[in-house]
Specification:
mainly alpha, two-stranded antiparallel sheet, 58% helix, flat
Length: 206
């Protein structure tokens, strides 16, 4: 069995080897480039984009009408109600929760979901019946398809190309102003129907 080393021979070389910094290779610093998240040319060619000067940008037509003073805040709120009901009724999803749910909140199930979706579809139908099919078509183009006024004018009044955008803008402003009052009436009628059904089920004492 070999004897244990008792001398400090070679210790200096070991210390120098570990204490001497190793040479490092210098790498070139690459300046990070910002990713181009702008829409593709194909996306900008769609009818929900419009030329403003030399730029082609996506327009929020409702906000454009509001900023121009053509509609008030109640009409903007009614437009948000309508598109939420429309998307929920046609596609089955709704994303409007912005506040924390209360502690006594009772989670729904597939049945309450279907009932709520049916109520949304009913409100859309009542709005269509109250304002008319022409107004409903303009709401779909304006809010659901998010078309620009120029694209709407090309589809609805192609023979009036020179003033089509201005005509459609005025029509949409009028429809949105009517939508605010129509929603108030529809919600009032819906609450009345619920109370009537409740009275029929539970009796006069309810």
């Amino acid at each position: 069995m070999p004897k244990a080393l008792k001398s400090r021979a070679g210790l200096g070389d070991t210390l120098r080897r570990f204490s001497t910094p190793k040479p490092t290779r210098k790498t070139a610093f690459v300046v990070p480039r910002a990713e181009d998240n702008s829409p593709t040319p194909e996306r900008m060619a769609k009818p929900d984009y419009e030329w403003q000067g030399k730029k082609r940008i996506k327009l929020s037509t409702v906000n454009a009408l509001h900023m121009a003073g053509d509609i008030d805040g109640a009409a903007v709120t009614a437009a948000q109600w309508w598109i939420c009901d429309y998307v929920f009724a046609h596609h089955g999803y709704l994303d409007i929760l912005s506040d924390v749910l209360p502690t006594d909140y009772v989670k729904g199930d597939v049945h309450t979901f279907a009932i709520s979706r049916g109520h949304a579809a009913e409100r859309i139908g009542m709005i269509r019946d109250r304002l008319g099919l022409c107004a409903h078509v303009r709401l779909e183009m304006l809010l659901a398809r998010e078309l620009s006024f120029s694209a709407m004018a090309e589809a609805l009044v192609p023979e009036k190309a020179a003033h089509g955008r201005r005509i459609i803008s005025g029509q949409c402003a009028l429809v949105l102003e009517q939508l605010s009052d129509a929603y108030a009436v529809v919600r009032r009628e819906a609450r009345g129907d619920v109370q009537t059904q409740k009275a029929l089920v539970l009796g006069p004492s309810a």
